[in-house]
Design a protein that fits this description.
Layout (H helix, E strand, L loop, with lengths): L3 H18 L21 E2 L6 H8 L4 H9 L6 E9 L6 E9 L6 E12 L5 E12 L15
Antiparallel strand pairs: 1-5, 2-3, 3-4, 4-5
Length: 151
């Protein structure tokens, strides 16, 4: 008659062989982080849409303050702001990426803003480029940002 420890070792060994033979790869997490979300296209935003931010830039505002003035108030679940400066201690340009998700809107789930600022000789920032795209709650492109308005 086999001892109890011998039976346990045999049962565990049999289970491991069975588990290895029937192992299935774990499914990949279908969620993509917001900064890694694909962008199909973006829409350029004209200076007339962010006049207050232009005045803030000319008045010596920081890149972050300028970007937040461009995108306006936030009413949603998640907001990511990424600032990338070029030029060390005294950056000559800055790119600010603002990602918003879980907006309290029945059609628009999220927004992506790409903002490029340049610094002039006097040290004040100027707005060089602003682009915007949307992510919808429903429709064909719920898995990416697009320049198409949400249905």
């Amino acid at each position: 008659m086999a001892s109890l420890p011998g039976l346990i070792v045999g049962a565990v060994s049999s289970f491991l062989v069975f588990a290895q033979a029937n192992a299935q790869p774990l499914p990949r997490d279908p969620r993509v982080s917001l900064p890694d979300m694909p962008v199909a296209a973006m829409e350029s935003v004209g200076p007339d849409a962010y006049g207050r931010a232009s005045a803030l830039a000319e008045g010596g505002g920081s890149p972050l303050d300028i970007a937040l003035a461009i995108v306006g108030p936030f009413d949603g679940a998640t907001q990511h702001v990424v600032q990338m400066n070029e030029g060390g201690e005294a950056p000559s340009s800055a790119r600010i990426l603002v990602l918003r998700d879980g907006l309290l809107d029945d059609s628009v789930r999220g927004e992506r803003w790409d903002i490029v600022l340049g610094r002039g000789g006097a040290g004040a920032w100027s707005i060089r480029d602003v682009k915007r795209s949307w992510r919808c709650w429903r429709g064909a492109d719920t898995d990416r940002f697009s320049a198409q308005r949400c249905p």
